[in-house]
Model the fold of this input.
Amino acid sequence: HTGALAASDAAVDALLTQAGVMRAGSIEELFDLAMAFTAGSRVRVPRGRRVAVVTNSGGPGVLAADALEMAGLDVVELMDETVSELRPLFPAEASIRNPLDMIASANPPGYRTAVSAMLAAPNVDAAVVIFTPPLGVRIPEVAEVIGATAQAFAEKPVIAVLMGREGLPQGKAELQRAGVPAYIFPESAARALSAVVRYGRIAERPPRAVPVLDVNRERVRGIIDRARAAGETKLSELDALAVVESYGVPTIGADMARSVDEAVSLAERAGFPVVLKIVSPQVIHKTDVGGVRVGLRDAAAVREAYQAIVTSVTQAVPDAVIDGILVQRMAGPGRELIAGISRVPDFGPMLLVGLGGVYVEAIRDVQLRLAPIDARDGLEMLGALRSSAILGAMRGEAAVNLDRVADALVRLGLLAADFPEIEELDVNPLRVSADGAVALDARVLIASA
Done:
């Protein structure tokens, strides 16, 4: 899985993220960001991601709010005090909320009042101010008011949007002199402000410090050396779990049975319920060939499952050499992630984490970093997943212990850095819960001697 998901462009993204480089997705976005960081209109980094929108036209205000939310910023509800201050000052048709729509009759004094009230609010960190020119309102006057108000609240950045067919160059000049960048479209302003917020987080990031961990390198060296001496490039299931466990990642206990009676004996020793899994060099994805049975609660179920696995695998992969059947105790409740290592040409060891299970390559919700990493990297990877919300408390389940999951990622990253012979490693699933992370299955490919 990890090799298929760690494409070269994703490796570039991982490298740039760790280096603190923000990547523009287009020439347009490049210029949007450059305008925000240009010396003449350098946008101050806001204290947070809470944004207010002021406009004289409802449509652009809604578009701005949507774009800001999609860019990871928060369009906050106005405080009661702010609403009470603004309501008497604008017509009844005005929308005194966020976005604040003053309607087309808004004039320069109205902009001064509205922007000042928004920036003075303690729950607002930045503002996007939109102006669509109606008849009778001089554009430079509005621009001068926006610029002067922004300078009066210098600790809170202001980004302007001047929506005219020609881009309103005359108003843009006044804003540039005040250090306020002016864009033609709300989406450009949202991208720019989001980049400034991300820049602030990057600037505050402490230097990466890969921890010194208590791991068993000698055990891993022995496993790899024995496999290479035997001409093997894929570790056995038990050896793969042993490699992961040697670097401090908890694993579920496992033993291999080579007969039905041995499987029953191992299951009774492990304690029911148990899981049976096929062990064969020719079988990579066990579930695809009926090679896994879960929730076996007694000896009779184990006997039936053992025979069913052998029959199913033999039919699906006639040339499969069945080394045995892995017997494991059923893991406790939790959510499933995938964690893995892959070697990417010209980049080196790449660490992956994502939503796990049998649909991992279809969903492709993963994050990559160059190994080794530190705990902060691990937490950022988990937080950047589209499905990160499932790691929180939900449906009666406690929140996942993210610190312990991040520790498991740090350990796998160190394993990748210590052993370049490991070309690919999958831990799938990595069962995560309030108690931490447990590797339920592992697959390791190594370079030939």
